[in-house]
Amino acid sequence: MSEISSFLHHGASHITPAKLDKLNHELPLVKAELTQLDDTGYPHLINQLNFLAEFVEDFAEGKLPHTSFHAVAAAAFTLIYAHRVVDLIPDSLGPTGLMDDSALARATIIIFEKQLRSYADDRSIDWSEITSEA
Predict the structure, then answer these.
(1) Residue 65 in 3-state DSSP?
(2) Which of 35, 65, 80, 82 has its CA 20 to 30 A from that of 73?
(3) For the packed helices 69-83 and 45-60, what is the interaxial angle rounded to 10 degrees?
């Protein structure tokens, strides 16, 4: 997980308020495209990415004033990465192509679990729908 964690932190460090604002404007399209993912083998991926999208959107709209920018930047980077046409493992490979997207989403959720779980609790979102916890 350390390589994914390093990749996540590096990518998040490049998220600026301007990039976050741009992503926020593109989120309706991103969320619509998420519904087209073949998440076979990664049953939580779509829920995770939608959850991160809602988290970013709420932050961008000023609804999460006590949330760290780093957590939001990590979520934003994860969404931008998952939305890319070309990434480390091409999504065109079917379910195998989502391995990197899933790893990045899980890393974001694990690293920022305290903030994300609190967000889920505040929104009455079942945490087990986001994670692989039973």
Answers:
(1) coil
(2) 35
(3) 130
